[in-house]
Amino acid sequence: MLDQAAWEKRAAEVKPDSKIYIDGSFVDAASGKTFESISPRDQKVIANIAAGDTADVDRAVISATKTFESGVWSEMNPRDKKPIMLQWAELIKSHQEELALLETLDVGKPISDSMTVDTTSAARVIQWYAETIDKTYDEIAPSPRNAIAMVTREPLGVVGAVVPWNYPMIITSWKLGPAIAMGNCIIVKPAEQSSLSALLLARLATEAGLPDGVFNVVTGLGPEAGQALARHKGVAKLAFTGSGPTGRKMLQYAAESNMKQVALELGGKSAHIVLDDCVDLDVAASTIAWGIYYNSGQTCNAGSRVIVQPGVKDALIAKIIAFLDTFKVGDPLNPNTQMGPIVSKLQRDRVNSYLEIAGKDGEQVLVGGKSTSGDDLMIMPTLIDKVKPTSRLAQEEIFGPVLVVIDAKDEAEAVALANGTEYGLAAAIWTNNIARAHRIARNLRAGTVWINTFDMLDVITPFGGFKGSGSGRDKSLHALDAYSALKTTWVDLN
How many other C-beta atoms can be found within 10 angstroms of the C-beta atom of residue 287? Predict the structure, then answer.
């Protein structure tokens, strides 16, 4: 990997695509307006991004609809689609450094993570769904002998995807892979904080041979471009990842327009349940720390709560604190950095608002806990003990590097506490008793439950949550059904 000086030189020279991408070409916003993409690393303007609105969403939907109805992609032979998507994945790999740099400049994540995690994962997802294209079979229902009843998957048409800023490339690929593999056309509205990698992914898709109009990107602000996409009557499905309040608005927009399908992934307040029979506290401590401080805590399934029994609590906390003594926080362009800044001043101030209440209701700040201001977006890893289950610190998604510790006297109380928020995205159980682990896992209302590990994710398994964490699932073969419509064709053989 390049050293920091080399990355800084490339950052100074970068000239990213910054226009809207429609029908295979970069175009200005219809209004001619732009907005600044500001790097959390140094508050410098990376690019002036086209500020799309309703007119631009209309253009994108017209292009996508025309392409879909032409059949140039939706009706292409599966064996011809597959190599195009495979070539796209290869181009993502060959542009790894360029994509990683854009991701780090846009959102402040460490360059080593952008290189080894984000770009690699995006390429794998596109490659994996490419491989499903000629391996996905339809069904013959068990109909009477005098009939044949076929159940076939058909593409929905035009899909809209509104994606967040915390993992722009990865989450965008989760929408792109299954939607395009199933023959749909897609319009991506990236978060205004993180538009650059989506625009490069679109250019690479065209270079790989994806027909014009299959993958469009409309950059812009949420209330303008995002709402226009969610309300558009030419969009058959909206896939959204983001906050709960905005997710509720997406449902409202769909209801007020054409009753489009809506899939929501809305974040979480994931719990680690650490029981007295957890024997490897070193592994538990380092895994718990990585699960909250990775990406500066800006992860929807971040393990932001530790629910722990008294027999192991003191030892666990001591090991987490010892881990943080070696955890490298700093410039995201330094390959040795393990945690960079918060994405923006707005998000920094939101995290600050939680830090300011710590200690007012008996909480004890063990590590970190200091607010920052001005251009300083670096909030240090924070560990807070003696947090009441009803506290905002324990109930609300902070989306920052803040870990809270909650006491549980026994297994039953631990499960009740873990389930005791509006969220249900993920959870982890730390125990040496596998029967106990399975019993608890069955009782947890979470879309993913890890046992003696955390944040082990791959495209092979579905991702999504229960309750306020949303509906629908990204990844795995199940996502192919989410981007298709089942059609029954009944043939009378008499």
Answer: 21
